[in-house]
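thought: fold this chain, then report.
action: predict
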Amino acid sequence: VFNVMVYTLFANSIRSEEAESGGRSSLEDDMSELGETHIQEIQDDLANILLTSDAVILVLTLVVSYALSRRTLAPLEDAYQKQARFIADAAHELRTPLAAMQAGSEVILRSGRTQDEYTRFIQENLEEVRRLTTLSNDLLFLARHKRPNTLPMSLVPLSELCAKRAGAMQAYASAKGASITSRIEDGLHVMGAGDDLVRLLDNLLKNAIDYNKTGGSVALLLQKKSGNVVVSVEDTGIGMHQKDIPRIFERFYKASTSRTQNASGTGLGLAMVKEIVEAHRGSISARSVPAEGTTIEVTLPAH
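observation:
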């Protein structure tokens, strides 16, 4: 439309100039005929230029639009794939305890059982129910934690909190054949949600214990660096390959079969840690060497 307007204005301008130059001599008429021929050539050239530019602009517009649309839709496609994978993983995690409970119920109902057998069956079912409860609570936490502005923030004494959680996880570590040591700098505080920070520390420590070796150790470090507080959890466990590190904070992601066999959680621990860190405007990173151990480092703004 713009090019048609340019061509029309140009042609109207030429016609208006011809109309104003009336009453010319024969020599002027001959010169005028030559001028009209030249003007017609200019008009034709202008039309060709405008048509060519239209074609080029159309092709460029299609190419750029296609590229931009792919770039725009890439996050949506990635989100859809993550959602589909999350649903499949959640269904698998729910199906496993339910299948165990169903199979146990069918076996126990086939014939008369002793009191001890009934007791053992109820205990096994209770463990599966606890697992389902933990899974549902973790999923509910992740769903609610998408609204970080609603978190009740207050000044949290992180040094005291780290010391308490390291002590509280000692029994769990002993049961798994591991030990916990800590090096905590005194007097460090952060602005945050106390309950969420407890969950963060517990998940980091539990993860390090679950994926450790028998007789291994877990070190909890807390220090101040460049105006931030840095929480590091180091273990001497089985480690992981570099290709797995970028995905360990995804929900239900399982790096390897050996790691899965050692774990007793739901596969949501590190995903919850990442959500908590982001809600507190911090960052999280991981380093790992197979068969040597893993270090997860959380950086939070100090107050």
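thought: worth noting. The first strand starts at residue 154 and ends at 157.
final: tokens above.
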